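re: ur question from earlier - yeah i can do the single chain one, its not a big deal. heres the input i used so u can compare w yours
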Amino acid sequence: MSFIWNEIFRPRPQVKRLHQLQIETQGEGRYLAGRHSRLEELLRIMRIFVEFFRGMRALHRVGPAITVFGSARFKEGHRYYQLGMNIGSELAQKGYTVMTGGGPGIMEAANRGAKQAGGQSIGCAIILPREQQPNPFLDRVVNFYYFFVRKVMLVKYSYGFIILPGGLGTLDELSEAVTLIQTGKLYDFPVILMGKEYWQGMMDWINEVMIKEGAVTQEELHFLHLTDDPQEALDIIHRTVKGLKISLTPIKSHAD
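and the output i got, formated as tokens:
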């Protein structure tokens, strides 16, 4: 019984121990490394259920939220960090909860902008052996052990997605949101790429290769937008939220 209890309900590792984790030999890495005994597979499924339950319980009253994705590697002073702060601030002032992956870089920037504007700032952090720690601008942070559980939470509680410049993780999150919407698994929430200089090459490839070859149609991507203007991004989001009749409580500016 103690083995079962520890496997399912053992406390998740604390942030200060992240560098000690060996993901390659336990947890998600082991789960995805082929089949194991039926008992171990059952216990893993139960543990995944518990993580879903914890996430849903923690985020049940969050929102209406907009999820901001972006690289953990752009530090303060970078132009994209500033763009993240600007969009976080604008979203918060209009009454949206800003939700990110909870880490450093652009995630920190968006949370920081929301926090400084007096809005709600939420992080869904991932437990990794080396890289991320939750940033200090979060009103609430939920730590996840499994990447796929974390992605579900970031999608489930969001009414729109803002994709700032990022690496492979950001591309994964972008693809997840776009695929769910394109296939009808998710409402047509807006997916907004911010940073024209960064994303224009990908958009050109989509238009000149994917659409031309018939792998996707322009109509299927009507929810995908490209802009550098936070206000344009907010206008796009507002049109969707207004159609859903979601209540917002804008934050009064200091000048009011």
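The two ends are 60 Å apart (CA to CA). not sure if urs matches, ping me
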